[in-house]
Every structure is written in structure tokens, then in C-alpha cells.
Amino acid sequence: MSVSRLTLAVQEHGLELPDEGRFAVFAPRIGYDLSALPKDRCDVVQPLFPDHTAFARSGFKCVVEEEGDYSAAIVCLPRAKAQARDLIARAVACADLVIVDGQKTEGAESLIKDCRKKADLSGTVSKAHGKLFWFRGGDFADWQAPDVTKIEDGLVTRAGVFSADGIDPASRALVNALPENLGRNVSDLGAGWGYLSVDILKRPTVETLYLIEADHTALDCAKQNVTDERARFFWADVTTWEPRARMDTVVMNPPFHTGRTADPSLGAAFITAASRMLAPTGQLWMVANRHLPYETTLSAQFAKVEEVAGDNRFKILHATRPARARR
User: Fold this and answer.
1) Left (φ > 0), alpha (ψ -120 to 50) or beta: where does 153 sit?
2) 5-143 in CATH: which number?
3) Within its chain, how far is the Cα of 281 from the centroid?
4) What are the boundaries of each domain within the chain?
5) CB 115 within 8 A of CB 133
6) In terms of CATH architecture, what is 149-326?
């Protein structure tokens, strides 16, 4: 079994972990090796539902935000630079010792350079196309992201959520293609900070809208953006969530990345979930990047699939008669 950078730092590079106090581990993804840390003294700070659940099942205390002060904090670098800086700033604010770990593709090398301008690094480890470094102190207050970022139309987002800087053009294209009649029960799968839901709720025929989102931070933003009493919010994994009623319509702009790696199987799993939760006469409306091969999954899950709009970047897909209802 390959030794992680964290374990290697402790065993061979002089990283001394505190004997007392708690550890905060920011944003570890499923499979991240925490064996170098005492499990009973760790708070895993993870707002992503599948990863949060996986670490909780492994016996870790899991929270969506840090709680109080810690002896040490480990930051597992995310893709977004603004989010990475925010996590480091939060770690410095709550812990004496800060450890940062990430792949080069996640900006680890540039963050080392930036952190050296603010603090004296105590050590670094290079392994498996990644970097780990640690330090104490420093002023990182200017790296902390605001609680919310205001964008157009009075909507709010936050660093690290999908399309944090503005309305996603693919979602905008989907909104422009949606019909007036979506039925009474509608689900927005992977609702993010709520852009699609705001438009869906302009239709008076919608009685209940279910927003299902795995990112707790994005869902918090959605609760600020979507204030209609018909909205119901669920922090959950779309692929395993079970609705309380059959849906008339599912609307979605599904994710297709794991880290920086494209993974169309995520979108395919969303399609399968949509088919499972729709009523026999239900319909799916979705947008996807032009190159993503979702038509095969759609044809397996629905009797009728058609591209109703699009351009050289996106395609708007409409599917009816879900497979579950035909069995």
C-alpha cells in the first residue's frame, strides 16, 4: 500500500503532530488517508454529502463547518483557487499548526509560493504528483472569502460552489428552453445555488419543488435565493435520494467532473435517478456539454429522447416515458 504524503511527512520529514487537542481536516475526499491522525480527535469538515457520509461511516466525527479552536488543521486542496485560499485562511484562524496537501493540478505549487509570502514554512513533502507543506502563524485574513458573493439579479453564491462567479451559460440555455407547463411536482437535481429553481417557481402550476444538492454550502445559498414556500430543500446524494412522491418533471444540469477529471458516469447516474423518480407520464429536461455521450443512457432509461435546442457548446435534451414506468 502506498504511503500518503501526510504519513510520510510524520514518519520521515519531521512533521510533529500535537499530542493533545483536536484536529480539523478540511475538505478531504473519499479515499483520503487519515491514518496518521487519531480518529477520536478529528473533526472532518466536509460539506459534500457523499464524502461527509463516507467519513462518518468510517467512525470520524463529521461537520459541515469548523467548530471552535484546534491544535492542528489539515487542508485538502479543492479545485477552485478562491476556495483553497478560503480554507487555508479558515485553518489559520482556528489552529496553531496548518498542514496543506494537494496535487499539482490543484495548484499546490503556486499556493506554496503564495503562503511563503505570508508565513515561514516548516517543511514540505513532494510525492505522487503532489505537495504537502506545513507552517504556523501568518496573516491570511485577506484570503478568507465573504459569507456570500452577490451576482446579477440579486442572487448570491459563495466561493467553491459551482458557477460561483455568475450564472452558468448552460443553465441559462436550459431556462430559455423550459416549457410553461412542468406539472405539479418538480425536482431540480443538483440544484446548486438555485438558479434553475428560481425560474421553475415562476410557474404557478408548480405545487412543490424539490431541490436536491450534495454541497451543503451551495444549498445554503439556494435557501437564500429561493424563498418561495413551495420549495423543499434536501442535502443528499441525487443518485440515492428517494422522493416522497412521483415527479411530474425533473430538471437538471448534472455535474461531470471528479476533481479535474471528466467523469460522464456522474451525469449518467443522474439520468438513471431521474427515470426512477418520475411518474409514468413524467418528463426530463436537461442540459449537457455538446461532447458528453448521454444519449445512450437516456435511450436506455426513456422511450423517447430528443434534442430540442442547443449550439456548438451545449445541447438541451428532453426525455419522456421513463423506463421504470414501462416495466
Assistant:
1) left
2) 3.40.50.150
3) 31
4) 5-143, 149-326
5) yes
6) 3-Layer(aba) Sandwich (3.40)
% of the chain residues with pLDDT over 90: 93
Question: pTM above the 0.90 mark?
Answer: yes
Question: d(Cα 105, Cα 164) in Å, to the nearest integer?
Answer: 20
pLDDT score, position 53 = 98
Q: Position 208: which residue type?
A: T
* Residue pointed to by grid coordinates 499546490: 108
The candidate with the shortest Cα–Cα distance to 43, out of 1, 11, 8, 91, is 91
Q: Which distant-in-sequence residues (6+ apart) come within 8 Å of 123 by Cβ?
A: 9, 13, 14, 15, 133, 134
By three-state DSSP, how is residue 121 classified?
strand
Q: Residue 93: left (phi > 0), alpha (psi -120 to 50), or beta?
A: alpha
Same topology for domains 5-143 and 149-326, yes or no? yes
- Taking residues 314-320, report their average pLDDT: 97
Q: What is the mean pLDDT of residues 267-279?
A: 96
Distance CA 231, CA 198 (A): 10
Cell of 249: 418533471
